Amino acid sequence: MSTGTADGEMSPRIEVTETAADEALSLLEGEGLDTDEAGLRLFVQQGGCAGLSYGMRFDDEPEPDDTIYEHHDLRVFVDPSSLNYVEGSVLDFEGGLQGAGFHVENPNVVSECGCGESFRT
Prior knowledge:
Elements: E1 2-5, E2 14-16, H1 18-30, E3 39-46, E4 52-59, E5 67-71, E6 74-78, H2 80-86, E7 89-94, E8 101-105, E9 111-112, E10 119-120
Parallel strand pairs: 1-5, 2-7, 3-6
Antiparallel strand pairs: 3-4, 5-6, 7-8, 9-10
GO biological process, one term: iron-sulfur cluster assembly
InterPro entries: ATAP, ATAP_core_dom, FeS_cluster_insertion_CS, HesB-like_dom_sf
Protein name: Iron-sulfur cluster assembly protein
């Protein structure tokens, strides 16, 4: 397991905005999870019209081969195969008339489907 921090322990490959961290921490606490151990898992899976899509869920603890990023007290777990697709990304939370949700700003994306739910690198 490797760890990246905003403090420079290792160059962060995943950034998290303060807004996204606050929202995720609030949801984690609402689920009764210990925010010192639990975290948000960011992963990439096959699917969507462009071929790949993002997935997120809360996990009680990281897997042994995960890379762990900590930003604004939020722990983010990324498995090795997903890291290849999301390296350099920023996780944000957006609210608005179209609905609120987490959004991944990924510099590796070369195209997205029309609805924005899937991507290709």
